[in-house]
Structures are given as C-alpha cells and as structure tokens.
Amino acid sequence: MDLTLKIWRQKNSNTEGKFVTYEVKDISHESSFLEMLDVLNIGLEEKGEEPVHFDHDCREGICGMCSLYINGKPHGPQQTTTCQLHMRSFKSGQTIWIEPWRAKAFPVIKDLVTDRSAFDRIIQAGGYISVNTGGVPDANEIPIPRKIADEAMDSATCIGCGACVAACKNASAMLFVSAKVTHLGLLPQGKVEAKTRVENMVAQMDAEGFGACTNTGACAAECPKEIPLANIAKMNRDFIGARLTSENV
Amino acid sequence: MSWLTDSLKSSIFRKLLMALTGLFLILFLTVHLAGNIQLIFNDEGQAFNIYAHTMAHNPFIQLVSKFNFAFIVIHVIYSIWLSRINKTARPVKYGYSAASTNSPWTSRNMGILGTLILVFLVIHLKGFWWEFKNDSIPMITYDGETMPNVFLVVKAAYSNIWYAAVYVVSMFFVGFHLSHGFASAFQTLGLNHVKYTPAIKAIGKGYAIIVPAVFALIPILIYIKSLG
Where in the numbering of this chain does the 4Fe-4S ferredoxin-type domain appear (chain A) (predicted)? Predict the structure, then answer.
C-alpha cells in the first residue's frame, strides 16, 4: 500500500516544529505502524536525510514507550498501543497525520519524542509503598480477596504511556494518576499510606502543569489498557476524603 | 490552615466547587420552573403574581436567592480559572483532531455553552429581576392586597417575537450544558457506581431535555396567545 504521511518535525524543545509530507510505497498491510515508520526511516537514511525520531521499546504493547498521535487519536484508530497497530487499519492512498503527544507537561524533545518524566515525578511523589519488601513472600502470607486483587491488577495494567493526557482536551493526567492511586490503595500493603499518597500525587500532578478533568471520557475511550473513568471518581473520593481527614496539615 | 488553602487550589477541589455550585443551580432551575408554570394558567397571571409576591417577602427565599447569586458567580469565576489552566496545559494545538470519536461535543464545549447561558442570564435579569427590584412595574390588587403585576411585564416581553426567540434558543444552550453537567457533577463528587451511575446519566439526560423544553414552552404559549 502507498501512503502520504504528514509528520511533525521539530529539531529540539527550543525550536518550533512543522508538518513535513512524506510518501511511502509498497508497505505491507501486515506490517505494524512502527515497521512502516522504519521503512520510511531507511529510505530517509539512504537519501542522507535525518530520520524521523519516535519512541518505542518492547513493541509488544506492554512497556508504554511508544506514543504517536495518529489521525487525531492517541495510538491511532484502534484502542491499542501504536506498536500493536497494524497497517491493515489504513487504506492505500490514505493521508496519515502523525504528531507527538501535545501537553505543556510533555515537552517535545525531538520530532515525535516527548519527555514524559512528569509521570515519573508523580510516581516519585507517592506511587510506592514504604516497606522493606525483602525476598519473595509466601503466596498466601497476606490474604487478599480475589475481587480486590483483580481490581488492583486492572489498574496496575496502566503502562503510563500518556495516551490519556494526549486524548484529553485539557491534557489532564487524572486517568493515569487515578490508576496508580487505585492500584496501590486497594491492596493491604498500599492502604497504610493511601491518604498521603493521593494527596502528594495529585499535588505533583497539578505542579507539573496538567489540566483539570472535564469528564469528557476521551481518556478512558483511548486508553490502550482500558482503565475506566470510574477510577477518576474513586480518586476524587479518595482525595477529598484524604484532604479532610489526613493528619497532614 | 495551609492544608485548607492548598486544598482549595488543587484541581480536584476546583472541580468540586464547579460540581457543587452546578448541582445547586440545577435545584434552583427546578424550583424556578415550578414557579414559571403558573404563567400559563388561564387566570391573567393571578397565581403567578401572588407566588412572586410571596417569594419576594419570604426571608428564607431571599437568603437562598443571595446564595444563588453567589453560587452563579463562583461557578463562572471558577470556570474561567479552570479554562485558563486547561488552555495553558496544551500550548501547541494538534494539527489533526478526531475528538468527536472519543467524547461528546457538549462535554468539550461546556465553556462556550456556559458563556452563551451567561449572556442570556444578563438579558434575563435585566428584563425581569431588575425591573422588579426597581419597582418600575404597575401594581395590581387581589383581595385587598396590592402587589406588582409581574405577569404584565412577562406577557409584554414574550409578545415580542425576538425576545421569545432568544429565550427559546437559550433553552437549547441550557439543555446541552445540562446534558453533560448533570452526570458530570456526580462523577466529580466521586459518585460513580455500577448501580447508580446509569440511573444518574438517564435522569441527567431526561432533565436536560424536559426542563429546558418546558421553560421554552412558556414564552411560546404566551407569544401564540398574544397573536390571538
């Protein structure tokens, strides 16, 4: 299949970027989206041009490294990660717009690569448990009901890719933070610090310059790990409760 | 008290204030509609005039109306504040957007809808509330009690096609604003539950259609009556 690509090119975080149009030919509909970009980059290198920079790592949909805002949607037309998106989701002759995540808190480093360390700093603010974990504990040492374990696991599947921020009209990180708060807050080890955690993580989220939530639902609709909007309601509940009852004055 | 000031500055508390004031305004709309319904009684406005007079002299209602104005101001100021933060959170816009595929139009345009409602509110308050407060209304006497004939002012206003049309169009804005705002307020308050959320959403949609529709019906009926 032959495609026209409109790709955001930006030299670094200090310069302004622009869309550059590229043509790629004879792309297999079985190749992944990132493989299609690899083909483009091989062509560019052969011509002595600078290849298009983009983030990727595992290419198995589990690391959260790939991003790309494709034709107006994070990770493209399917609710998956960009690495798991295949060219069969497009038609030959189609024009595809490829942009980086756009948010003040995710500055562009180069082309399609953004700095998502704001998420790391939110995790550092409270996305952990302060106990010495030691060796691997016995499986049933701490009894956790199956339902709670499943719910915590559902939230733990958040890979921190930032699609929620990219999809949100306010570039809000509420879905990401709510997934982390819910995952840890449901488990007995995490409950101990639940109030401080939600207070600190929300404070860091605000400090990073993410927007507020308008409950549009775009984040949950685009999340490749299907984190539900109900998590945000739970975080609101947890945060309001924590602010009113925690001993952090 | 730094925890309190810090809390009030947080994005979640700002949204909380939007939700709480919004829910109060929804409650107010319901009461307002219950009063307005009396405009279509076939009694030349007697029931409505007596109702308006009673409300204007009830200290509790007067206190609530002060809160109502305060909540409108808070709702507007916080929406401006939040919108500014939300706009700055994305300094460079996307070149291509497909937002309609993942979120309803109303949810993405609450600010525009709210602004249009605010413009309507200014016209609305100028036309009725202001006139009422400044005693520039003819009086009428029922059973020995003299009171302003508010009905006359309303009738005169809605006999004007343009005034009636602005009112009816504005009710569409109110409806769209409510169709997202009603359920959204509950979500912000943290009230999301598999049992209740579908009901809240259904009630919200129903409220957003029925209440503005009945509000809009009143000037339409008054206008039609004025023709005959």
Answer: 149-179
